[in-house]
Amino acid sequence: xxxxxxxxxxxxxxxxxxxxxxxxxxxxxxxxxxxxxxxxxxxxxxxxxxxxxxxxxxxxxxxxxxxxxxxxxxxxxxxxxxxxxxxxxxxxxxxxxxxxxxxxxxxxxxxxxxxxxxxxxxxxxxxxxxxxxxxxxxxxxxxxxxxxxxxxxxxxxxxxxxxxxxxxxxxxxxxxxxxxxxxxxxxxxxxxxxxxxxxxxxxxxxxxxxxxxxxxxxxxxxxxxxxxxxxxxxxxxxxxxxxxxxxxxxxxxxxxxxxxxxxxxxxxxxxxxxxxxxxxxxxxxxxxxxxxxxxxxxxxxxxxxxxxxxxxxxxxxxxxxxxxxxxxxxxxxxxxxxxxxxxxxxxxxxxxxxxxxxxxxxxxxxxxxxxxxxxxxxxxxxxxxxxxxxxxxxxxxxxxxxxxxxxxxxxxxxxxxxxxxxxxxxxxxxxxxxxxxxxxxxxxxxxxxxxxxxxxxxxxxxxxxxxxxxxxxxxxxxxxxxxxxxxxxxxxxxxxxxxxxxxxxxxxxxxxxxxxxxxxxxxxxxxxxxxxxxxxxxxxxxxxxxxxxxxxxxxxxxxxxxxxxxxxxxxxxxxxxxxxxxxxxxxxxxxxxxxxxxxxxxxxxxxxxxxxxxxxxxxxxxxxxxxxxxxxxxxxxxxxxxxx
Length: 644
Description:
The protein is α+β, with helices and mostly antiparallel strands. It has five domains: 45-219, P-loop containing nucleotide triphosphate hydrolases (Rossmann fold, 3-Layer(aba) Sandwich), CATH 3.40.50; 232-316, Translation factors (Elongation Factor Tu (Ef-tu), domain 3, Beta Barrel), CATH 2.40.30.10; 335-414, Alpha-Beta Plaits (2-Layer Sandwich), CATH 3.30.70; 419-526, 2-Layer Sandwich (Alpha-Beta Plaits), CATH 3.30.70.240; 529-641, Elongation factor 4, C-terminal domain (Alpha-Beta Plaits, 2-Layer Sandwich). The chain has 14 helices and 32 strands. The protein has an eight-stranded antiparallel beta sheet with strand order 11-10-16-7-8-15-12-13. It has a six-stranded mixed beta sheet with strand order 2-3-1-4-5-6, with helices on both faces. A hairpin with a 3-residue loop joins strand 7 and strand 8. The chain starts with 13 loop residues before the first helix and ends with a helix.
């Protein structure tokens, strides 16, 4: 049979040729789709996190691990390689956890190491808890000079609660003030980890890091085998890309995922098709599939920001799992403040409209699931959002990220905490804004959040710290010696007494050597009252606050003095008042701008001058009745910036 068309035969019609071409192309795609998959050899996997107190060398150790495993060349190496945000590099802290995959050869066998560099500040402990859920082990890094600190203890407890294998790493042994043997004994005394099993290294010089890699392969457990035959993957992070949509970071717990698979989000029920899979090494590397216990990222053309939830389970649409993975507990926001857009654009071109602020918050909420927001309105500032945060540093970071990444200028009100209101009918109401306080006649009691506070400090600072805690209505619970020179103070303290300047005073008293960690343990009723701030007789809800009755006068007077400095003088006298119900407890006055109306009178009868003065007085009185006071935006930060 001739392979070519016979010249004597008539040429097929054009439509028939197109139909045949489409048939051959579809057949080629069908054969390509069902081509046998190349199975890659099984590689031992170790999943672990790097946890530590602030500035104990987590990010530097991560840099050194990347260099020793040749994941990063000497030319591309730089400090804090995994801290990609400008805000992280400027402040020198880690804000977002970063997952990286490297390979290390141990006893002739290649291991795949998936590790996560986590933040160290107490406000970002939610990032640490999410990272630990995706791991089987953790490196607990301790500074050889500073020793065990507050977040060292807190992170160690988090790892134990997640049943992780811990490797204690004593870092910075190259410092002149290093005391590695004493720190090893502190670790054994406080945390119960054997001192003779501690690893000694210097992330800066690289000393001991190679031995640490071998210990990771040797001691950390391998991932548990799959529990079911269906595919399940846990989402532990995500962020938004303007060109590819939502990028999901996940770990496969059961089964595997391939490019082209149709997946289902078990929490939301949404269905998507995987367009791209890969992992960070730390540069993104595309892969055809990710198997059991591997960590990577996914792109599936997800455009709706609300379709992805941190802690959700990914499964296959054609063979779904019956039960989802445990996921994460929702974080408890304890500090709240309002964000309002500025009314005009500034010199840098940042916009201030409400819709731009909404879009920026929605994108940032996808990347940081630990803060909440809801629309609100203020007569003074217009439409905005009431946002909840884990702490003050978390609030500052969110504000700066919104201004930088969202391109919007923000006006921020003073922070408050959440309260539980027990009404006389027995019901319980939770409020986040003093303006939402019910009618005082219906209130039986107001409960405020109480934190369990652990302070690690030098012995010589104990007396001053106890005075500070007592002045903030703290209740001493005990103390424990870490070493001969340091101890742990346990206190119960109202959270509202901590969010202003407690940490700054702690650092000042201990000359920078004191650290603290806290957790919410519940709510407790006390003599709490709502203080209203009145400007020219009109209440300003954005400046209202709830505080203890014994401190209401002092706090109110500090606010009024700040307002007096911030508000410009008008043509009439402006009274600034603080009131509890109908009782005024503090007052300041802004004197009127006075014009010399008698300047044109030279001598003569005094009645002419009196007539002009009386006319001026009547005009000021009329102006005070109908005039309005413009409050600058800086005045709304007066509560936050006030000192003792």
